[in-house]
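[scheduler] slot 2 assigned
[scheduler] job type: sequence-to-structure, two independent chains
[scheduler] chain ordering preserved from manifest
[runner] begin chain α
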Amino acid sequence: MMKKYFFALIMIALTILAWVITYSHLPNELATHWGISGEADDFSKKPTAIATLVGIMIVQYILMVLIPKIDPRRNYPTFTRAYLSIFNTMFLVLFLINLITILTGLGIKLPIPYLGSFILGAIFMVFGNFIQQVRPNFFLGIRTPWTLSSENVWRLTHRLSSRIFVLAGIIIVLTAFIPESFTEPIIFIAAIGSILLSVFASYFIYQKELNK
């Protein structure tokens, strides 16, 4: 089991190590959120920031280990690679968020808008790439009444959603290169639109299957 979750544990360990090494050099207050322009718009006390950011990683690790054990479907061995790839991507993202918080706290200027677009876009593309491999379950994927009622609806919905999420990810990455005034609405439309399209698709695919 430890080998399966090795990457996640390494990310958590490296994150804690980075905080330990830099702790005494960081200010008492750290930026923990940035606006679309790249300006920090929310701050936290150093201990709070560390506890929150590292705590999220620990909770995510617990969930990653626990979900396959408590899901009634118990079919996670059939899509282990996809399951771990999606979770490991999120661990990498959380590690980068911790690193960005540390580096900005040290006074290093980072291209936050570019990083935000690339990181969020990458999440959507990785999710889209692996989601079609996920088998029916109650925790991961497009879980609607229609996908959970039919394995074929689940399969067809996730095959379509895979393309939708990858396209959304590409659009989000490209927002790094357009004027800031357009960035936020385009990211919002791409992100929410991909989710809504997937939900609606599951319904229409279900109806199509009923009428066969």
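[runner] end chain α
[runner] begin chain β
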Amino acid sequence: MKRVAKAIRAQDWFAVAIEFVVVVLGIFVALEVGAWNQERTDRHLERAYLLRLTAETRANIEVMRQNERTFTDKVEFVLGLPEMQLESAITADPQAFMARLDDSSWVALPDLRSETFEELRSSGRLALVRDAVLRSAIATVLNDYRSARPVFERPIGDYRRMLFEALPGRCYRDYRVGTGVGVADVAAIAAAVERLRSDPRFEAAANAEVTYGSDMLFYVRLFRAQLEETLALLEAGL
């Protein structure tokens, strides 16, 4: 600044121009370096978030696959229950039979993992993920799933209630929290299931349960496909 003041007093306008250019260039370079450093930091952050989003999406896909297996087995079990040879089916593996019987009344879906997306949204950092299509894909699958989930958790028939009314509590206790021996009273389980399927309301309840399970299979596969599309976008961005 002293040189500029001296040049002005001496009316050395060329020197003033040179000093001005130097100052402007210095400011420009400083701004560019700052912008470059910020961009570099943002890209590191973006990659870290993309890796976390990828891990969560893979976990969510696995959850959907597990639920697909559960609902497939549920539908097959309820469809086969009316003609099932109970004694042989139970005796072969009482604990496994009770597991299938229990799963046949399954009516819930777990929440999807979304910690990273919620962190980005709540902190105002969503723009760190530059791919707008990816941001939209993640938001869409999470919002659609959460909107539909409360509906999925409502059974449309009486199968679950009828099952647990027919099944002796002791048998269920032995299956769930037994002392390690597991299910022992095969005859009691067979009698309980026979009471269930002899109930005049059973056919209607079983039909409703199969319809519910088939509906769930459709939507679980739909959400899994959406998650797999999202995963492809995430992996392409890494």
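[runner] end chain β
[qc] chain β: Residues 2-237 form one domain.
[scheduler] slot 2 released
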